[in-house]
UniProtKB/TrEMBL annotation:
InterPro entries: Furin_repeat, Growth_fac_rcpt_cys_sf. The keyword Signal applies. Residues 1-22 form the signal peptide. This is TNFR-Cys domain-containing protein. The keyword Signal applies. Keywords: Signal. CDD domains: FU (cd00064).
Amino acid sequence: MARNMIFWLLLIIVTETRVARSREPPCLTKDICPSNMYCSEQADYSVKCYPCHSECEPSQGCDGPMSEQCRACKTGYTKQPGFSPCRASTCPVGTYGNQCQNQCHCHNNDLCVQGRCTGGHCERGRTGLPFCLE
């Protein structure tokens, strides 16, 4: 009798351990949330989507609520490599955007503020005010 109880107890423990280990966290298995939100698994194994930090680029998403967890910063903010927050840009004149990688295309090098040509004219061959990206 005692031997049977031990057998069944061990069988239950092994089975529960295998089930627990085989279950993938739902937030890691697929894109559950829209790109401007991150996935958070709740204690009851349900998931909730929460908004990314306001400094995150909405189309790139984030991995959590802090600006350090933005995958890319929105226009006007930059981020150092690694786990660092998005900060208001202080890009050199003529550049803007994430890591100041984007070039301004304003007529006669007019002032460019976060990618927008303040003079209202694009450089020759460019269209699409205020950013002159076309």
